Amino acid sequence: MNQLSTYPIGTSGKPWGAAEVAQWRAQQQPSRHYQEDVVSVIESLQTDWDVTTYGEIQYGDDYFTLYALQSKDWDPDLPCALITGGVHGYETSGVLGALRFLTHDANAYTGRMNLLVIPCVSPWAYERIQRWNYDAVDPNRSFIESSPAQEAAALIHFLKPLKTQFIVHIDLHETTDTDESEFAPAKAARDGVVFEPCPIPDGFYLVANAAKPVPDFQAAIIAAVQHVTYIAVADENGCLDGTPMAARGVLNSSVQGVCADVTNAAYTTTTEVYPDSPMTTPEQCIKAQTVAVCAGLDFVLSR
C-alpha cells in the first residue's frame, strides 16, 4: 500500500531543503576506509597497470582521490572494455568485484582487449555504506550534462576523449534489503513524494538499456553466473524491481543518467547481486561479479 514516507527527516509531502540535507549528512559516519580497502590494492597493482588519478572529490574536510587502472601498452587496434564499481558506495561486491577482477582475472585479456577499470566511483559513499553522495544526490542518476554529482562529473570528464572507443561497459551493482528499508523511504522523503514499496528481487539479475538491450549478451552473462549464485525470478506481476522481466534474470530499463550509459558502447549492462540472501555469501557475491565481467568480455571477443 502506498503511503506518505515516515522517514525521520523532513516533513511528509515537502521536499528537503538545505537544513534537512545537513541533518541527513550529520548521520552519515564513516564505518570503513577507502584508503585501506581500495587504494592500497590499487597501489599494489602499479607494476602491472597504468594507474591514473582522474579527479579529486572534496566534501567538507574530506578529500578523496579517484583512480582508474588502464591496460599497459594500450593498443588502438584492440577492442576496449570499461568496468566500473562502487557507483553506489554501499554496494560492496561491486567495489570488491572490480578489484578481484584486476588481481585475478584481467591478465587473461592481455593482448586481446584494452581494459579500463574504475573500482570505486563514489569513495565518500563507500566509507559510509551509503547510496547517495554528500549532497544527498544519487550518482547513478547523475551521468548527465552539468551533473550535480562530483563523482559522476569527474568520470564523465575523464571518459570524454575515450567514450567512442569502448565496445563494452559492465557496471557492477547490488540490490540490498536496505534499498527498501532505508534508501527508498529516504528518497521519498527527500523528494516530498509518496513512498511506493517495491519487492526486492531475490537473486542475481541484469539491467539492460531498453534502447539497446543486446539479449544474447545478457543471456551469456546470466548463463555463466548461474553456476556461482542463483538467478532472480519474476515476482507475481512478472517484474524485477518493478519492471517487467524481459528475459530470464534480465530487465530492460529506460532510466536516464545511469553509469552504464556513460559511453557509446554497443554492449552494456548493470549487474545486480543480492547479498542479503541466506542462500549466498559475500564471497559468492564477489565471484558473481567477476564471472559476469569475464562472461561479458568473452562474449564480445567471440563476436
From TrEMBL:
InterPro entries cross-referenced by the UniProt entry: AstE_AspA_cat, Peptidase_M14
GO molecular function, one term: zinc ion binding
Start and end residues of each Peptidase M14 domain: 31-303
Family stated for the protein in its record: Belongs to the peptidase M14 family.
Active site (catalytic residues): 272 (proton donor/acceptor)
Presence of the UniProt keyword Aminoacyl-tRNA synthetase in the record: no
Protein's UniProt name: DUF2817 domain-containing protein
Cofactor requirements of the protein: Zn(2+)
PROSITE patterns (alphabetical): PEPTIDASE_M14
Coiled coil: none
Keywords carried by this UniProt record: Hydrolase, Metal-binding, Zinc
Source species of the chain: Ostreibacterium oceani
GO biological process, one term: proteolysis
Source domain of life: Bacteria
